[in-house]
Write a structure and sequence with these properties.
The complex is a heterodimer of chains A (236) and B (193). Chain A has 236 residues and is an all-alpha fold. Chain A has two domains: 125 residues, no CATH class; 78 residues, no CATH class. Chain A is 72% helix and 0% strand. Chain A has nine helices and no strands. In chain A, α1 runs antiparallel to α5 and α7 crosses α8. Chain B is mainly α and 193 residues long. Chain B has a two-stranded antiparallel ribbon. In chain B, a hairpin with an 8-residue loop joins β1 and β2. Chain B starts with 12 loop residues before the first helix and ends in a 7-residue tail after the last helix. Classes of the chains: A mainly alpha (236), B mainly alpha (193). Chains A and B meet through α1, α4, α5, α6 and α7 of A and α1, α2, α3, α5 and α6 of B.
């Protein structure tokens, strides 16, 4: 898995309500922040292994998807451990940041399991329910539009870059290259927004649409119990 | 959830237009995360994301600029691959990038508020160079201050180490982004403002 995205499947996590999965993620993060000790992290690592297995997500694939984060996670403990003068590196100083780095890795892995097992439309419905009224509806529509237009604008930007490269744009200073790419992207994005808002109005864009019905089932109970247990453990 | 059986409650024209622009801007922010330029000061390349924060405030104004950033973060939270390196999910919003990401709506609102002198929109081309640059410098300060504090808290390191690890190699590039933003706003190339 090079880029994190939803993949259809029939794992345990695929069958859960998106709200349950969000609750587990938030409770897991709270527990990880409250118990950043070797013992706490060993317990949480075992839990992550279970959660990833329940979501049929490979930990290696998920770690690869978050590869950009790894340099930062490694650099922080090293910087904290460096001392000017012998012995040049204080293991005791670096221990706490190293535990913190590992905690962040665990949180990233759990969020990978959510992303892989939850379709966009379910997330949209969950947000529409969690945030009440018109703000929630606007948020849910906006999120769906971001998913829809992200690949389109990525292609727009790569077209602009290709055109710039063909005209020896790579020889220009960094400021000019940034200006050219951003200008092209903005013009495409605003032109698309104008057409989109016309299309939305033409199709009776309403505050009260029909989204997929979300219902908690018996399968959600163990996961909700887990979220509650993690939250209690975090508060202890 | 009960299905609505009453009449259709239409979204107004102005709201529909603003929401479309904010959503497209949020998607553009996500696309900016994939456009990387080599950073002469670090092995981690720079992306155009902070430029996107500046432009959201300047072109959409304080309210809708901040709304676009909220949409960007929310879409990322539910799994759109819009964060640096093409990642998504709640993880980056709680991890060491948390301070940076959560600062975007604040910074966009601040930049927009300074450039437009309040909540009502004015023509950003009419803003003086000092106001434009000052607004973006303020925005940069907010982003890096919150970003450094967030990195220090999450990674359990001191503020100084957090600044070294997460900020120092990127701040000089922000000056280039500010110059690029001034060029964009003052030219007639962008037709939407």
């Amino acid at each position: 898995m090079v880029v994190l995205a939803y993949e259809p499947g029939d794992s345990l996590a695929h069958g859960l309500d998106p709200r349950t999965k969000l609750a587990v993620q938030v409770a897991f993060a709270a527990a990880a922040f409250a118990h950043t000790t070797p013992r706490g992290l060993v317990a949480l690592t075992a839990l992550v292994a279970l959660l990833l297995a329940g979501a049929a997500t490979s930990p290696v694939g998920a770690a690869i998807a978050f590869r950009f984060a790894l340099p930062f996670l490694i650099v922080a403990p090293i910087l904290e451990g460096i001392v000017l003068g012998p012995p040049w590196f204080a293991v005791a100083e670096a221990a706490a940041p190293a535990l913190a780095s590992y905690r962040v890795l665990l949180i990233l892995l759990v969020s990978a399991a959510y992303v892989r097992t939850t379709p966009v439309r379910e997330s949209e419905a969950a947000i529409g329910q969690l945030v009440p009224g018109r703000p929630g509806r606007a948020l849910a529509v906006g999120i769906a539009l971001v998913f829809r237009f992200l690949p389109v604008l990525q292609r727009d930007l790569s077209t602009v870059r290709a055109a710039m490269h063909a005209r020896l744009g790579t020889e220009r200073p960094l400021r000019e290259r940034m200006r050219i790419v951003a200008t092209g992207g903005l013009n495409r994005a605003f032109a698309r927004a104008d057409r989109l808002s016309l299309a939305l109005r033409a199709r009776c864009f309403a505050w009260n649409p029909t989204l997929p019905a979300l219902a908690l089932s018996a399968r959600d109970l163990p996961a909700l119990a887990l979220a509650a247990a993690l939250a209690v453990w975090a508060a202890m | 959830m009960s299905t609505e059986t009453e009449g259709v409650d239409l979204v107004g024209d102005e709201m529909a237009g603003n929401l479309a622009r904010a959503a497209l801007f949020a998607a553009l922010m996500g696309a900016f995360a994939y456009v990387s330029f080599p950073n002469p000061l670090s092995t981690v390349p720079v992306t155009l994301q902070v430029l996107g924060v500046f432009l959201a405030g300047i072109l959409l104004g304080p309210i809708w600029g901040a709304a676009a950033m909220v949409l960007y973060l929310a879409a990322g939270a539910v799994g759109a691959p819009v964060f640096a390196g093409g990642t998504g999910g709640i993880g980056p919003l709680l991890g060491f990038t948390a301070g940076y990401l959560w600062s975007y709506p604040l910074a966009a609102a601040l930049v927009g508020g300074v450039v437009h002198r309040g909540l009502s929109l004015r023509d950003p081309k009419a803003a003086s160079l000092v106001r434009l640059v000052g607004a973006m410098v303020l925005g940069t300060v907010v982003i890096y201050a919150l970003g450094t504090v967030g990195f220090a808290l999450v990674q359990n390191v001191g503020l100084y180490e957090a600044f070294l690890a997460s900020a120092v190699a990127f701040i000089p590039i922000e000056a280039i982004k500010i110059a690029a933003a001034v060029g964009i706003v003052r030219s007639d190339a962008v037709t939407a403002a």
